[in-house]
Amino acid sequence: MAKDTKERILMAALDMFSKKGYEGTNIRELAASLELVKSGIYKHYESKEAIWNALLDRMIAYYGEHFGSAEHLPPVPDSLEDFVSMTMRMVNLTIHDEQIVKTRKVLTLEQYRDERARDLATKHFLTGLTEMFTHFFSGMMDNGLLKKDDPAMLAFAYTTPVSALIHLCDREPEKTEDAIRKIEAFSRHFIKIYGKG
User: Fold this and answer.
1) Domain 1-58 class?
2) Alpha-carbon separation of residue 81 from 6, 69, 90, 131, 146 (angstroms)
3) Angle 156-85-148 (CA atoms, 0-180°, nearest 5)?
4) Poorest-confidence range of 83-92, 121-130, 167-176?
5) What local confidence, expressed as pLDDT, does residue 2 receive?
6) Protein fold of 67-197
7) Exposed e or buried b for every residue in 56-85, given b needs 16+ CB within 10 A?
8) Hey, where are the domains in the chain?
9) C-alpha span between 132 and 121 (Å, rounded)
């Protein structure tokens, strides 16, 4: 039961932090949203900072499990069509998974206040994606699917516009379907230019 309450606190904190930011969230409101009193929160977490750090730990684990990470790389696609399909699965997950969307919003809001949030934002919005796709492109080049080129530069060139369109979906949800279409068209254009065969 305590574990369930701790998880409920983290999920409610994620929701509030994604809307109000860290500074705009207070423990009394967080407790009220869970039908708890403040002491009910402090029974599980000693401070708002403890909730924040536990939430960041949970976000890292959740993202790695559902999306992938440098430590848990998805397999290299074995065809160009598999590559497009993999890209679109990743895009759909990151745009439609509520926890990932809220996590991205929290990191966007808090990257200027908190050093750990800044580092995670850089990793999830830029360097982690580039590393993951460098792995894919290197493997695809080795397997004869892509023309030989610098896989890190290709990864940077590929992931940057995709990431920008994902952030657009967060800011302007009404543009989501158009953004998804643009990402797929871009992915197909990319393999047309760099694919072999």
Assistant:
1) mainly alpha
2) 42, 22, 14, 21, 12
3) 45
4) 121-130
5) 57
6) Tetracycline Repressor; domain 2 (1.10.357)
7) bebbbeebeeebbbeeeeeebbeebeebbe
8) 1-58, 67-197
9) 15
How much is the mean pLDDT over the chain? 91
- Residue 176's contacts (CB-CB under 8 Å, 6 or more residues apart) are 95, 169
How confident is the model over 30-81, as pLDDT tens digits? Answer: 988 998 888 888 999 999 999 999 999 988 888 878 777 767 788 999 999 9
What DSSP string runs through 62-102? HHHHHT--SSSPPPPPSSHHHHHHHHHHHHHHHHH-HHHHH
pLDDT given for residue 175 in this prediction? 97
| pLDDT value at residue 78 | 95
Under DSSP, the state recorded for 173 is G
Residues facing residue 16 across a β-bridge: none
For residues 6-43, one letter each, b for 16 or more C-beta atoms within 10 angstroms of the residue's C-beta and e for the rest, the string is beebbbbbbbbbbeebbeebebeebbeebebeeeebbe
